[in-house]
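Re: the pair you flagged

First of the two:
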Amino acid sequence: MNLKDHIRLGSKKITQNSKPYIIAEIGVNHENSLSRAKKLINLAKKGGADAVKLQTYKAEKLASKHSPAYWDLKQVPIKSQYKLFKKFDHFNKEDYVKLSKYCKKINIDFLSTAFDIESVDIINPLVPFHKIASADITNFPLLKYIAKKGKPVLISKGASTIKELMNAIQLLKSNNCRKISILHCILNYPTKYDHSNLEMISYLKKKFPKYFIGYSDHTFPDSNMLVLTSAYMKGAKIIEKHFTDNKKLKNNDHFHSMDFNDLKKLVENINFIDKLLGKKFDNFLKSENISRKNARRSVYTSRKIYKGEILNEKNIIPKRPGNGISPIHWDKIIGKKALKNLKEDALIKWKDIK
């Protein structure tokens, strides 16, 4: 694959010139409630997201009971990974099937990140592609199992080296996964603005020219959504951010998530930028016709010229509007003879000179 190719993610065809594929990551912000999950899905759809993404796991298969926290304890005052994950792992296969059907009903892609083998089997029939979390970039058993499902894969680079990323990609490819996209990510909850390092998007594009590059964000959403808008401007073709209906909640990922208004603002920004970027062309716009005519110049007399007088740089001048002889013919006009008297500030026509 090269930059001229495309990749299909769910219902959307992604190209180098397309708008980004926006993933509203509900994660476990549904807090084990199907009705709340549906509410969040609705808000994501209305806000302009292309997909919603949940997280599928069982705490026992994800973290040891003695695993320490790696998030901001002021925001989420739970010191054990296991306790936090256990708190939100209540959904079962039937719940994911119901939510998948609901997404299909309202026309938004359903996704979920699987964190263990059994979870992959649950979501595989329901998702158009798989997402591998940053923390699992070295979880080769999981990567290999996902790759063998034969679906496209998004993989986040958070907290990893380029070598680790390359090793993960090689493993996916060697197990029959060919459609891979890479997401720049900083694995801090939250990520400080000056740690975002959006230049990594450009770097990854150069380092991995055969793959589409995106961005998975964990910063606090700024009022103008400039972080994600800037990521799009740097070339991110996939944008993923946690999504909530209440950023004030302390549980799990609410505190660094975007809400409906943030998502709506992001989509507005992208649509406006897309309008600004426009298309490439060799001609000019129809709307510029009047400017070509009235703002360009024609050759005028700079003083009265008598019949038989030779035109020179002292008696002619380029002036607006451009509805006469263009000054691109200036060298051809110099030395010509006036065939009649011409007033000062008169538009010179070809029939007036010889």
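Second of the two:
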Amino acid sequence: MNEAGYMSLALSLARRRKGLTHPNPTVGCVVVREGEIVGLGYHERAGYPHAEVVALEQAGDRAEGATVYVTLEPCTHFGRTPPCTDALIRAKVKKVVVAVQDQNPMVRGKGIQKLQEAGIEVVTGVLEREAYELNEDFFTYVTKKRPYVTLKLAQTVDGKIATLSGDSKWISSPQSRRFAHRLRAEATAVLVGINTVLRDNPSLTVRHIPFERQPTRVVIDPELDIPIDSDLVRDGIAQTLVVFSQRKPSKEEGLLRLGVQLLHMEEIDLTELLGELARRDILHLLVEGGAYTVSTFIREGLWDRLVLFQAPKLLGEGVSLSGLGIERISDCLNLKLRKGYRLGEDMVFEYVPVMERRLLKW
């Protein structure tokens, strides 16, 4: 197996924990000595040993003189756990192959430098693109001080996300809806506007797939209209955070008594809201709707990925994105297609903004 093969294995280990390590990155590690894999590891969750430490412990004495393949630059700082660079140096490894440099200002380049100063050979950039995309949410979180924002839309071929009456169940196929639960599982929080709550009474929980935790549910509700008997308030399955402006003391008291978290803002500003969510360790935010809420995130440029489920259906009149303030084709927002695949009868497209300045060049 060559370097790319070992790194591919490390990436597959990391993906097992995608969405479960927040606010930490997702990392996998493989230790190889004389062509034999002697240690495997991944970071299980925040506060647990990092991938390098797990793999080194499995390797034991065989780590000395070995080559270590790790999907992210080893850390150099004390957090909930000691620095991984120190563990690698103590283990007397010969070489460390790093897929991508950590974009965290506390680490960026320092881990590589410390290993080199200790006489360890360091190679970087093996499967860099794959490793970057795996932790793109974490990189956004540590550099922009806000969550990575994924927008999710299900639409017909003619671009409608609901009928004029608001009915949208179901535009997408069962396979697409199951995949949408994977998106929830990988997010720290799921956000909707109050209109979605009033119309659909959603639970916004992970179902239909294996899961270990539920994302926090965030509702933008300026006038605090969320019903006391709604599932988001009553089901107790996951934490619900309601963001509101209009004070209603008795309603607030009732919601707090039922375990709902409240965030009061004199005026709901998405930039400020995202900053507050980041301070609450929300690393990845999945915005599920409705049309006005998604349109607002797009208009304000506060998104990083759009996952678009397109069903082979025609609706004609219906609800679509609006309020983007675009009057000419030349002013359209240009998107870059990152991935496209089929789920059941639907096509799924993953887009990123063209104007987004990438931290790495490909």
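The mean pLDDT is 92.

-B.
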